[in-house]
Design goal:
Elements lengths: L2 H22 L5 E6 L6 E8 L5 E9 L2 E10 L2 E11 L2 E8 L5 E9 L2 E10 L2 E2 L3 E2 L6 E9 L5 E9 L2 E10 L2 E2 L3 E2 L6 E9 L5 E8 L5 E7 L7 E2 L7 E8 L5 E9 L5 E12 L4 E4 L18 E7 L5 E6 L5 E5 L8 E2 L13 E4 L5 E7 L2 E7 L11 E3 L5 E2 L15 H6 L6 E7 L13 H11 L4 E2 L14 H14 L6 E2 L2 E5 L9 E5 L18 H11 L2 E4 L2 H4 L13 E6 L2 E2 L19 H6 L5 E4 L23 E7 L4 H10 L2 E4 L5 E6 L2 E2 L3 E4 L4 E7 L4 E8 L2 E7 L7 E7 L6 E11 L4 E4 L2 E5 L1
Parallel strand pairs: 33-34, 34-35, 39-41, 46-53
Antiparallel strand pairs: 1-30, 2-3, 3-4, 4-5, 6-7, 7-8, 8-9, 8-10, 11-12, 12-13, 13-14, 13-15, 16-17, 17-18, 18-19, 19-32, 20-21, 21-22, 22-23, 23-31, 24-25, 25-26, 26-27, 28-29, 29-30, 33-42, 36-37, 37-38, 39-40, 42-43, 43-52, 44-45, 44-47, 47-50, 48-49, 48-51, 51-52, 51-53
Length: about 775
């Protein structure tokens, strides 16, 4: 072959490779976008396709003071017909399917006295039939999945929660009767988030995730239409959650889930979707690597979770999911992947979790989702590439038969005996650490609600935690049903003397001076409704505080130097503490060092509030949203390790003792590590206020997590004593100082700690009135 021919051939191969690469990177994009004309407080949509091509959409919506289930139709590009199927104090997460005869079936959860029941309703030619109650007993039955097989049998699977247990139940409707509900897998560990799929020959598959302890969620699978083995598909030490199922035209079963495994298979913070095929005995993974997978992204768009699958007749597998602040889709074409297309509405805000999707017989892929302030229907055309036969390889997961085991017991962190003794605490005092400010997918964060508590308890080994999702923020409101779900999850993790949870939410007003800033609200138990910013009786700080005091609840403002705080409305009973350190930085004073802060609003820092004569304790919390480096704002990669509260309890660890300590301000802030700190004045604990006619004796004891560089004692925001210097003072420090210079009047004292590694701690102040 001549050199010229070789050159031409090489050029042709190069061009072919280029176009093949471009072809494999085709981005799926919506051809049709239609906002559903619904209340912006509509949530949890689902869709089904009628025989005549009409799309049926079901969703729940706030309709003060109750919630409603609404069915809408989309035909020939126009929204038509609207039908309210139910109205109750609580309705939750409707699902929709269609039978071979064209009957629409709608299911949802609804509150009936003390129980939450799963109900099903047939809709035939726009006329609702009789509502049927499927679940039994006084449990919380919800978060159901539904599917109809070729024989017309209707399958239903759901979570059944009682106290701290959760099982997946199922029932089948055949010959107009529901079978007795039974457990899919009888096991004592927590089981959640069922998914269903039916095959061409009546096969009915159910997948769910189960919590096995040590921050390990696995994916489980069982066939329901016959006696069969239950499989633990993933059997790993990582987090695998939220399975999705679909059966393709060749009757192959496909699964997807999200996982926090990094490239080496170890648990990490970012999550990504995984796609697998199950042949009845083994899992298989696509041979082609998924492009665009980025576990190191530090932007607002990170991770990819909450999968949904749709398979076409031609063999394309559409994979939908939610990154932070986005919705994305990627298509597996058998021998290659498409690029990942993004189709969310613009802006930061509270989005839904799952995209619901179906493949129509004409090749269109239809989806419905809750986006920022709206429900949007999208129609995707098939990609130009023709799918090939799936090229698969054995998956890396070690699938095993499932064992009905208890979740592994957790290890509980304990301070070193020498360090704890060094604190010189009273015999009835207990030091506890926890994170009282976290977010999940229910507002603008990542991960599930239970993920917050398993992570806090079993991975970080905190003693207490709270999930504080925004209740009204960026066109998203926490609905009564969502609050009921959050309270149930929170109560299920509360275990006196082991791990304490508090029902909580974030009351999110506008930034100062246009609003009061952001405050987290905490309750003693689950008996309370939300005091919403959207309600006229809680839409100002004064109204909120009045309700908090009437109910014995409390609130803490946070990232005060960034979004501000209305100091002039401060109430030491309703607002006993201020969060001064988080993923957004440290807000002791403007220009804080060595930890800096986000923003910088003059007059909005801890020292400014104290200088106005206000009385409050201080604490730290992560304000984590699940984003590494908090999209470039945080000072650490781990968003959950950027703020922490240390609390001195009287007695053992309980909700009552934790709440009492928070109200009494026996609390201090750290930058996310367990620095031990005890500070007193004349034997009065931090947070105290008292009167004396002699110079106060100030005592501080600190046991660091590393070498301590400085311990400062401040009076009236001024340093009056510095312990340490350029060479540090070791990892344990104590000093006692009689303040002979304190004149008449009221003074406040607090301690600031700085370690060599930049970690910090701050005590709550003590107010001393000198006579």
């Amino acid at each position: 072959m001549s050199f010229r021919k070789m050159l031409v051939l090489a050029l042709l191969l190069l061009i072919s490779s280029f176009f093949l690469a471009q072809k494999s990177k085709s981005l799926p994009e919506p051809k049709i976008r239609a906002l559903l004309p619904a209340n912006p407080l509509a949530e949890y949509p689902d869709l089904a396709l009628a025989e005549d091509g009409t799309l049926a959409i079901v969703y729940q919506q706030m309709d003060e003071p109750q919630e409603i289930i609404v069915l809408r139709m989309y035909r020939d590009g126009v929204w038509v017909d609207s039908l309210v199927l139910d109205r109750a104090d609580i309705v939750y997460r409707p699902r929709l399917t269609v039978s071979p005869e064209g009957m629409l079936w709608v299911s949802w959860a609804r509150k009936n006295q003390n129980a939450i029941e799963v109900v099903v309703l047939p809709v035939n030619e726009g006329r609702p039939g009789q509502m049927e109650v499927v679940s039994t007993g006084s449990a919380r039955n919800w978060r159901q999945a539904m599917a109809c097989d070729a024989k017309g049998r209707l399958w239903l699977a759901w979570e059944r929660m009682i106290a701290d247990t959760s099982q997946i139940m199922f029932s089948v409707r055949e010959s107009e009767r529901w079978s007795r509900p039974q457990a899919v897998f009888s096991a004592p560990h927590r089981q959640m988030r069922p998914a269903l799929a039916v095959g061409a020959n009546g096969e009915t598959w159910c997948a769910w995730d189960g919590y096995l302890g040590e921050y390990n969620y696995d994916i489980f699978l069982r066939r329901l239409d016959q006696a069969s083995q239950t499989w633990n598909l993933t059997n790993s030490a990582t987090l695998e959650q939220c399975p999705a199922l679909s059966v393709d035209a060749q009757n192959r079963l496909w699964l997807a889930w999200h996982s926090n495994a990094d490239a080496s298979g170890k648990p990490d913070i970012p999550r990504w979707l995984e796609l697998r095929h199950w042949d009845g005995k083994k899992l298989f993974a696509p041979t082609a690597a998924m492009p665009d997978k980025d576990l190191a992204a530090q932007t607002e768009m990170q991770s990819w979770e909450f999968p949904t699958l749709a398979t076409t007749r031609e063999g394309a597998i559409w994979l939908f999911g939610r990154p932070s602040q986005e919705f994305s889709v990627q298509v597996f074409l058998g021998d290659q992947w498409s690029g990942r297309g993004n189709f969310a509405l613009p802006g930061w805000g509270g989005r839904g979790d799952f995209v619901r999707a179906l493949a129509a017989t004409d090749g269109m892929i239809w989806t419905i989702r809750r986006d920022v302030g709206a429900l949007e229907l999208c129609g995707f055309e098939a990609l130009p590439q023709k799918p090939a036969a799936p090229q698969l390889q054995p998956a890396t997961e070690r699938t095993i038969p499932a064992v009905p085991a208890l979740a592994a017991p957790r290890e509980k962190w304990k301070p070193e005996t020498a360090a704890l003794n060094f604190m010189n605490a009273l015999p009835n005092e207990t030091l506890a650490f926890g994170d009282l400010h976290q977010h999940s997918n229910l507002s603008d964060g990542m991960g599930t609600a239970d993920d917050c508590y398993t992570r806090s308890r079993d991975f970080y080994q905190w003693d207490f935690a709270a999930l504080t999702d925004h209740e009204w923020f960026v066109h998203n409101r926490l609905l009564p049903s969502e609050w009921e779900y959050l309270k149930t999850i929170t109560a299920s993790f509360n275990a006196p003397q082991d791990f304490i949870t508090l029902p909580a939410y974030e009351w999110t007003a506008a930034r100062w001076p246009n609003g009061a800033g952001h405050k987290n609200v905490y309750f003693r138990d689950e008996s309370y409704a939300i005091f919403s910013l959207a309600d006229s009786n809680a839409n100002t700080t004064a109204k909120l505080f009045a309700r908090l005091k009437a109910e014995g609840a409390i609130a803490f403002p946070h990232h005060i130097g960034w979004t501000g705080v209305d100091w002039q409305k401060h109430d030491p009973v309703a607002q006993p503490n201020v969060e001064i350190i988080s993923v957004h930085g440290a807000f002791e004073y403007m220009g804080n060092e060595p930890i800096t802060h986000r923003g910088g609003t003059p007059g909005m820092f801890m020292q400014n509030g104290l200088a106005q004569g206000l009385r409050f304790g201080v604490l730290g919390a992560s304000d984590g949203h699940g984003l590494i480096w908090h999209h470039g704002i945080g000072r650490k990669r781990d968003p959950w390790m950027q703020g922490l509260a240390g609390v001195w309890l009287k007695g053992k660890l309980t909700r009552a003792s934790l709440f009492e300590a928070l109200q009494a301000r026996r609390v201090y802030a750290t930058s996310g590590v367990r620095i031990l700190l005890n500070f007193s004045a004349d034997n009065h604990a931090m947070g105290s206020e008292y009167t004396t006619n002699t110079p106060p004796t100030l005592s501080a004891r600190v046991a660091g997590t590393g070498k301590i560089r400085y311990v400062y004692l401040l009076r009236d925001n001024q340093i009056i004593h510095q312990h340490g210097g350029d060479f540090g003072v070791g990892d344990m420090v104590r000093f006692e100082l009689i303040d002979e210079q304190a004149g008449p009047g009221t003074h406040w004292y607090y301690v600031r700690v700085v370690q060599d590694d930049g970690e910090m701690a701050w005590s709550s102040p003590i107010w001393v009135t000198m006579e």
